[in-house]
User: Which sequence fits this backbone?
């Protein structure tokens, strides 16, 4: 073991503390807080960076708090249980704005993160792992199982279900407004959705995000909106209720079937759902006034970028769970500029953050 003494100056995209070694290399330290003076041991070394673990906290950060979870930081579920919530919010702002500047070359900045005020008991979904010896969640950056029978992030009914022993393998537990009883439903602003497919894990924060997307779309009954990654149609319906006509496009057949059921459930005959690849579906000459995109973490494919530029909507509402791929894609959408952007704390106590961006033609 070779000990290095460092001072933590900020946070990486994954929530790790960031410091510099004497030779100038950046070092990433899980569980570190801005302002910590630490003795660290290097775990992995690269040409310009390194990863390290804390051996001793020499001088604790003023933002450091005692973790309230017995399995933090071993469990990979949380990144920020060792700092104040306001410090966590600051780290997320840094993450978003660093991505916008460094990846996208953009001057626009996010000044605040929208939040529900609830940092515990918000998750409506958990993926439980079991083997012969243990049942729980995976350790950080590992497939080693950390045994547990409750989690501070989960809704109470899911925590109750964790106390049961399940068969070896992976078990997904989900909760809706009707608890764990299938078929699961959730309600947002008077709309009811079946959540058999993808649905945001934080219902309260999802409402904030959807409200902002609806504000950005600013649709009228004379306008057309397309949603190119519609999933089970929750965002399509939430925003599309303001439009004269809405189309949701989704490649997964089961999700499209669920989206059509959601349209019927909410009495929205003007909303259509199509099973197709967002990159090459036939829009039959219909031109949208606004396009909504909420892609996976990897962001937009080159094909979807081309499709958007071909459609030439007046407004694009981009919902993203990864600021880096959002910034990259904004740069690729030539002819469009950022009119407004906001962030939502969809995943409190983790390093993840959701963004919503309004793009308009230059």
Assistant:
């Amino acid at each position: 073991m070779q000990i290095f003494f460092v001072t933590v100056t900020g946070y990486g995209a994954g929530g790790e503390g960031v410091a510099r070694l004497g030779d100038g290399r950046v070092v990433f330290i899980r569980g570190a807080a801005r302002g910590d003076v630490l003795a660290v041991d290097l775990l992995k070394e690269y040409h310009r960076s390194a990863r390290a673990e804390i051996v001793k906290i020499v001088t604790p950060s003023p933002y450091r708090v005692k973790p309230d979870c017995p399995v933090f930081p071993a469990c990979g579920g949380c990144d920020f249980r060792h700092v104040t919530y306001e410090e966590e919010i600051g780290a997320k702002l840094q993450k978003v704005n660093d991505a916008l500047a460094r990846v996208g070359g953009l001057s626009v900045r996010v000044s605040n993160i929208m939040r529900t005020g609830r940092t515990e008991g918000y998750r409506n979904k958990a993926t439980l792992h079991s083997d012969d010896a243990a049942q729980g969640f995976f350790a950080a950056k590992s497939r080693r199982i950390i045994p547990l029978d409750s989690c501070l992030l989960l809704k109470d009914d899911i925590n109750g279900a964790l106390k049961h022993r399940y068969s070896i393998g992976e078990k997904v537990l989900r909760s809706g407004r009707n608890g764990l009883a299938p078929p699961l439903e959730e309600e947002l602003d008077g709309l009811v959705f079946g959540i058999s497919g993808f649905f945001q894990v934080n219902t309260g924060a999802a409402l904030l995000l959807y409200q902002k997307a609806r504000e950005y779309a600013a649709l009228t009954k004379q306008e057309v909106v397309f949603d190119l990654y519609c999933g089970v149609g929750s965002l399509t319906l939430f925003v599309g209720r303001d439009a004269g006509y809405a189309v949701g496009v989704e490649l997964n057949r089961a999700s499209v079937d669920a989206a059509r059921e959601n349209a019927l459930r909410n009495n929205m005959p003007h909303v259509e759902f199509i099973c197709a690849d967002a990159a090459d579906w036939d829009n039959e000459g219909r031109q949208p006034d606004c396009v909504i995109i909420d892609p996976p973490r990897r962001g937009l494919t080159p094909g979807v970028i081309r499709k958007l530029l071909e459609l030439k909507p007046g407004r694009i509402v981009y919902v993203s769970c990864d600021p880096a791929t959002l910034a990259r894609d904004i740069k690729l959408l030539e002819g469009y500029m950022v009119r407004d952007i906001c962030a939502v704390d969809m995943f409190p106590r983790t390093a993840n953050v959701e963004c919503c961006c309004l793009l308009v033609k230059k």
In short: The chain has seven helices and 20 strands.
